[in-house]
């Protein structure tokens, strides 16, 4: 049996929040952490995930997260355990408190995950589109 915090409260470090896991990675899956073996960050320098947002290392870490096969599980674990530091699932410590607050207010984990992952996908698409336009403009200027 896994001990969880009281619904609506922040957990002590290492104690998961009591949230609605329906349709999302289960607490058992998150607690076991086996998903970490498949994480794209496992082959990279750990320090990249604990840098200031204005650094190139931070941008590289977020980009690596964007294509990670276990991004959903990573993000779920960071939210359920209210991870205070680093980049998890492509989100920084600065952005997660708002997401954790939504969970504390009763929003199901699956809704929070889907919201973040859809928003990040749209942002990546816009960046890619801008980059393509920029490259075409450089090409025509030459």
Number of strands: 0
Instruction: Work out the oligomeric state of the chains in this entry.
Output: single chain
Averaging pLDDT over every residue, what do you get?
82
Which secondary-structure class do the elements indicate?
mainly alpha
Could you write a compact summary of the structure shown?
This protein has about 140 residues and is mainly α. It has helices at about 25-30, 55-65, 70-80, 95-105, 110-140. The chain has one domain (about 25-140).
Describe the structure.
49% of the residues lie in helices and 0% in strands. With 142 residues, the protein is mainly α. The protein has one domain. The longest helix has 33 residues, at 109-141. The chain is globular, with a radius of gyration of 17 Å. The model has no long low-confidence stretch (mean pLDDT 82).
List the helices and strands and how they pair.
Layout: H1 27-32, H2 56-66, H3 71-80, H4 96-104, H5 109-141
């Amino acid at each position: 049996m896994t001990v969880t915090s009281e619904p609506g409260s922040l957990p002590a470090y290492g104690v998961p929040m009591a949230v609605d896991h329906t349709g999302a990675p289960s607490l058992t899956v998150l607690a076991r952490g086996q998903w970490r073996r498949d994480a794209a960050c496992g082959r990279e320098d750990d320090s990249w995930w604990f840098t200031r947002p204005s650094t190139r290392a931070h941008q590289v870490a977020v980009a690596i997260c964007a294509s990670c096969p276990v991004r959903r599980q990573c993000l779920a674990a960071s939210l359920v355990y209210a991870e205070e530091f680093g980049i998890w699932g492509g989100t920084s410590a600065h952005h997660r408190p708002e997401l954790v607050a939504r969970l504390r207010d009763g929003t199901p984990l699956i809704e929070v995950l889907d919201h973040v992952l859809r928003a990040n996908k749209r942002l990546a698409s816009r960046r890619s589109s801008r980059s393509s336009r920029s490259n075409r403009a450089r090409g025509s200027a030459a």
